[in-house]
Amino acid sequence: EHARIWYFHAGGKEEIFLSSADWMKRNLTRRIETAFPVYDPQIKQTILNTLQLQLNDNVKTCLIDESLNNVYQRNNCAPLRAQTEVYQMLKEKND
């Protein structure tokens, strides 16, 4: 599954929205979807930390190339699997 985080940073202002689904035609036909802003600074920071972990994932991250193939992204950094790291981060936060 993938996040439904919309992150904007314009004019020095950060804005974060969460949405209920991918905003694709198939999800907007005969359904009601929503997006809403996040205002609480602590929740915003948790979302930004989650997003950063997802962007740094080098174990399960794939990009779709020009031939529409999923290509795993690797680098020489220590392995980081976002799903595991996000779970651990939230577990520690709630312990």
Could you explain how this protein is built, in words?
- It is built from 3 helices and 5 strands; from the N terminus they run E-E-H-E-H-E-E-H.
- With 95 residues, the protein is α+β, with helices and mostly antiparallel strands.
- A hairpin with a 5-residue loop joins strand 4 and strand 5.
- The longest helix is centred in the middle third of the chain and has 16 residues.
- The relative contact order is 0.14.
- The model has no long low-confidence stretch (mean pLDDT 87).
Descriptive tags:
23% strand; three-stranded antiparallel beta sheet; globular; 35% helix; alpha+beta
Task: Give the SSE string.
Answer: EEHEHEEH
Instruction: Give the end-to-end Cα distance, rounded to a whole number of Å.
Output: 25 Å
Question: Helix proportion of residues, in percent?
Answer: 25-40%
Numbering strands along the chain, what is their spatial order in the largest sheet?
1-2-3
Q: What is the SS-derived class? A: alpha+beta
Summarize the structure.
By secondary structure, this protein is α+β, with helices and mostly antiparallel strands. It is 35% helix and 23% strand. It is built from 3 helices and 5 strands; from the N terminus they run ββαβαββα.
Record the SSE blueprint.
Layout: E1 5-10, E2 13-19, H1 25-28, E3 35-37, H2 41-56, E4 62-64, E5 70-72, H3 82-94
Helix pairs in contact: 2-3
